[in-house]
Amino acid sequence: MAIDTTSARSAAGGLPPALSGRYHKPALAVFLFVVVAHWGEHIAQAIQVYVLGWPLPEALGVLGIPFPWLVTSEWMHYGYALLMLIGLIMLRGGFVGRSRLWWNISLGIQVWHHLEHLLLLLQAITGNNLMGRPVPTSLIQLVAPRMELHLFYNSLVTVPMVVAMIMHRRARPSERVLMRCACAVPAHV
Q1: CA-based, 20 to 30 A from 41: which of 5, 139, 151, 179?
Q2: What angle in degrees, to the nearest 10, is found between the helix axes of 74-92 and 97-126?
Q3: Please, which pLDDT band fits residue 72 given cuts at 50, 70 and 90?
Q4: Where are the chain's structural domains?
């Protein structure tokens, strides 16, 4: 009796298996769009403060201008951090070799980023803020301002993720044989 190693590899590499195979490329495209759009919001807010000279309470990013509650909602920020974490975990199985290392770096940083947002959410829910601060405060926020910190966190997650995607698309021949998706560009002869 033959053992189906394909399904075993898919199950071990990430859930659901189709996200590591035939749907990996479109899922990565959607995920990248969401991540870059969110990162762009943080960049827009920084531009509003540092280039346009807006006071921080008025620097709401692009979506925060028509929907100001987005900027102050710990639920929304936590939900995005959780979505990022889930996306990084679910798409991880499609990465092999060098790209997997970079994806894992992004995932590791997002685990910490998620924990910081969980801490912020728990403070917002309970009303018990870290070290008696007047607003929910993350650990690193004790030494760095929130706007700059979250721009930095999102950059730390996004950059290795993009490096992973580039390496995944430009997989070496030894990596291509391990891939279950069609993400890699055709090999040059």
Answers
A1: 139
A2: 160
A3: confident
A4: 20-176
Longest CA span, the chain: 70
8-state DSSP, 152: H
The encoded tokens of residue 187 equal: 């090999």
Q: Which ranges in the chain belong to alpha helices (H)?
A: 5-13, 24-50, 69-72, 74-92, 97-126, 146-169, 173-176
pLDDT, mean over the chain: 89
Do 110 and 81 contact (CB within 8 A), yes or no? yes
Confidence of residue 28 (pLDDT cuts 50, 70, 90): very high
Please name the amino acid found at residue 114. Answer: H
Say which amino acid occupies 135: V
Integer angstrom CA distances of residue 155 from 10, 38, 74, 173: 30, 10, 20, 30
What is the value of pTM for the model shown?
0.86
- 176-179 long-range Cβ contacts below 8 angstroms, 24+ apart: 178/96, 178/97, 179/94, 179/96
Is 6 a residue whose pLDDT tops 50?
A: no
Two structure tokens written together for 3: 């053992």
Position with higher pLDDT, 99 vs 5:
99
